[in-house]
Amino acid sequence: LLNLLPPTLHTRKVRKSIDSWIIRWPSICAILLEMDYLAHSQFPEASNHLGEPFVKRLRYIQQKFSDS
Fold it and tell me: Into how many domains does the chain fold?
C-alpha cells in the first residue's frame, strides 16, 4: 500500500491548499471561539493569536516546498 503513495507532495495543488488554509484558518478559529462564548453566555476576548500554531506549521511546510 505504501508503494502506491506519490513520491513527493510538491504539487501546485498542495501549495494552493496550504495558501488557502493560511488565510482561512485564523478566521475559522475566531468564529468558533465566538460561537463558544455565545453558547456559554460570555463575552469573547479579543485575540490576535487564534490558530497561530496551525498557521506556523503550514508556513513551515510551505517553506519546505519552496526550498526544493
Answer: 1
Vertex 2: Cα angle to 18 and 67 (nearest 5)? 35
Residue 65 corresponds to which cell in the numbers above? 516546498
Cell of 19: 495558501
Question: What count of other Cβ atoms lies within 10 Å of the Cβ of residue 61?
Answer: 16
Residue 4 lies in a domain: no
- pLDDT (tens digit, 9 = 90+) per residue, 4-60? 665 665 567 777 888 888 888 888 888 888 888 888 887 766 666 767 887 788 788
Residue 1 lies in a domain: no
